[in-house]
Amino acid sequence: MLRSITQGAHYKWWALGTIAAGIFMTVMDHGSAAVALPTIASHFGADLPAVQWVVVAYSLSVSVLLLPMGRFSDMVDRKKVYITGFAIYTLAAALSGFSPSLTILIFARVIQGIGSSMVQANMTVMILSIFPGHERGKALGYQTSVVGTGAIVGPALGGLIVGEFGWRYVFLINIPVGIVVIAAAMFILDNRGFNLGAQPGQRIRFDWLGAILSGGALLALLLTISNGNQAGWGSPSIIGGLLVSVALLAGFIWWELRTASPMLELRLFKRKLVALGVSAGWLSFLGLTSGMFMMPFYLQKVQGYSPAESGLIVIFSAGSMAVIGPISGRLSDRYGWRRFKVVGMSMAATAVFIFASTLTENSHLGLIIPVLILQSCGFSLFNVPNNSSILSAVERSRYGVVLALTHLTRNSANVAGVAVATAIVVATMGSAGVESNLESVAANPQAFIMGLHRVFLIMGILMLVGVTLSILQGGRPKEAPAGGAEEREESSEPSSRRTEGEAVSE
């Protein structure tokens, strides 16, 4: 039976289902953990700046390792890296569930991030490698649908688990799911076309110095941002951290422009589609993460909903992501990406501005749920065409490292979004003479909500910058690349099926 699957005409759907199961697992876990944060904070007696590290440590670990793992996977067996990453992720989930202290839990989340970086660096390129170039938007849309479905199940299931069994089972449930996903990947995925990084006869050398410099720069920057509120933004440690990150980044750029086998081909950023697409994507994730991180605290500590109820509330917004993702992918394949990116980011920004101006401690769900849906619909309408626009500007042989870059964009924005939102809320509460622990949030909701208003306002302004970048990025280039990978792949297709503008935009 397995031979008929791997050799059959429907192999791409079997492979998509297998990879999608892994994507679903990681997204579901993220949503479950977010809903569990208030309970985790209460269990360990932690305040808001401390408990944020359950999320930040994971995203920080992923961000530092995504580019190296993307390049490493271009050189070796991508399937083995993917499966090994899931094994590490699953074992670390067990450690998270049995953690006796917040410190151990944060350490376990770092290990989970290592495994997740190996998974994330491979999952999208594996999906795209089994679909033809003219179906790129459709493939990305399917992935977004899986992400949306996982985002639906995660908060709802996480809330139920926390309410019935406790926060530890939010992590422990990953063990049986992880075993099933690993087994399916071992037997179904046959590595067909997964390794796109090297051409026949070409040997790729791993850029160790580039990995160290890029990882160090990201680590220094994200740690500095995450600790700025506690240490003081003008303190010597924070200023020193920023200077170190800038120095390491400068060293990384200098080295990557000179080495024969760079980890990240920085000259790709001369291409407008890549530079502006990555920048707009980072701003979109920053705006989405900042508000979504604070929403469970608002729903549970201000509005008084249980973890299960708050999980059910965000189901509607996650469901819209599952529906809109495939639609936006198919439409962008057919009509181009700019109109969908601009409209999508504008919708998300509108939702954020509505929260900034109307959210109170007594806001009705009739307001909260529709605005969350508007934000998620806008984000989904933007995200799939944006990733498609970036990939259209690069050759398929570079998909691995470029997709790792897009995942790095998401994870670094997640870290920055959580850190910035926490800093703004804590600073606002502090200026009102209110401590930043959860008891103070419940006892003095006005100061917390004032901080939320400032978070949403700032993020809305940044998302408007993203709208501008999407407009400037333009549409599909008119000329096809000379000898580009996708052009060769699609040259046998009828002209009506070829994707216009599978080109390198310099």
Describe the structure.
The protein is mainly α. Helices cover 77% and strands 0% of the residues. It has 20 helices and no strands. It is globular and about 55 Å long.
Give the integer mean of the pLDDT values.
79
The number of distinct structural domains comes to 2
Compute the gyration radius: what is it?
22 Å
CATH architectural name of the largest domain: Up-down Bundle
Query: Which structural class is indicated by helix and strand composition?
Result: mainly alpha
Poorly predicted segments = 478-506
Task: Tell me the strand percentage band.
Answer: under 5%
CATH class of the largest domain: Mainly Alpha
Main beta-sheet strand count, sense and barrel state: none
The geometry reads as globular
Short description:
This protein is mostly helical and 506 residues long. The protein has helices spanning 2-7, 11-44, 48-51, 53-75, 78-97, 102-129, 136-164, 168-172, 174-188, 208-231, 236-256, 272-302, 307-313, 315-335, 338-358, 365-392, 399-431, 438-443, 445-473, 485-490.
